[in-house]
Amino acid sequence: MSNPLRILGTLDRHLAAPAELTLFGRSALALGYPQAPKHFHNTQDVDGILPLAWLQPPDSHEDFWQAVQRTNEELESDGLYLTHLFRELDVILLPDWITRRLRLDVGLAKLAVFRPATIDLILTKMARADDDDLQDIQFLLRQESFTQEQLKAAFARARVPEMQEIQELFNRAIPKVLAMVAVYRFKAWRYQSNVFCRKRPPAPFGCRAGPVFPGPMFLDQKTPRNPGASRIAC
């Protein structure tokens, strides 16, 4: 069984009143994307984002916090827990992230479960950008197509917590993520080019996929040996 779903199901069972939770971390990827690898469901915790509006007034969700405590007590022996719940200001997000979050159909009675948009999930992963986070970002980049310009615009608008360590790690992560996009888009271009060439009829001698380069030259000449063939490309 999916560990995130088990944790959320336990929380739902302990709730006496309706509540909501926005996931991030591996649990958001596991439950928020149909193409998520099976091992994403092995994560032992659920991380959550708490919108500022939801937290007001401070004592309005006592039932939720009691349900969280009971959930952790029940699942402690299995090494599962729900303890990483952050205010939205403590997570790297776009200022209007809540307008784009998506509700997940996880079949719970009282708990409404959401995940942020893909771009916001990428930003949350840039607070540490360790090897696991970078792998998760690679997965997210495969789920939705982004250009480097779109990502740069998001990085410029991102609301980063006012902690020097997080800001430094975020800035270090930016070139890594942009490099991922460049590599992924190049691979996608190569794949599309190969598919296109395979679908075309046989080309004349000298046909090549990719950029057109001059044909081979004699050492004592400044013109291609076969100029006509050098202009043919797949």
- Average predicted local confidence, pLDDT: 85
Helix content: 40-55%
Gyration radius, in Å: 25 Å
Distance between the termini: 49 Å
Secondary structure class reads alpha/beta
Count of helix runs? 8
Unreliable stretches covering 5 or more consecutive residues: 205-234
Per DSSP E runs of 2 or more residues, the count of β-strands stands at 5
Biggest sheet: strand arrangement: 3-2-1-5-4
Question: How many structural units, i.e. domains?
Answer: 2
From N to C, what is the helix and strand string?
A: HEHEHEEEHHHHH
Strand content: 5-15%
Shape: globular
Characterize the main sheet: 5 strands, mixed
What would you say this structure looks like, in words?
With 234 residues, the protein is α/β, with parallel strands linked by helices. It has 2 domains: 3-199, no CATH class; 205-234, no CATH class. It contains 8 helices and 5 strands; from the N terminus they run H-E-H-E-H-E-E-E-H-H-H-H-H. It has helices at residues 3-14, 26-32, 62-75, 118-124, 131-143, 148-157, 164-199, 227-230, and strands at 19-24, 45-50, 81-87, 102-104, 111-115. Helix 3 (62-75) links the parallel strand 2 and strand 3 (81-87). The radius of gyration is 25 Å and the shape is globular.
Task: Give a brief description.
The protein has 234 residues and is an alpha/beta fold. The chain has eight helices and five strands.
Task: Produce the secondary structure layout.
Elements: H1 3-14, E1 19-24, H2 26-32, E2 45-50, H3 62-75, E3 81-87, E4 102-104, E5 111-115, H4 118-124, H5 131-143, H6 148-157, H7 164-199, H8 227-230
Parallel strand pairs: 1-5, 2-3
Antiparallel strand pairs: 1-2, 4-5
Helix pairs in contact: 1-3, 4-5, 5-7, 6-7
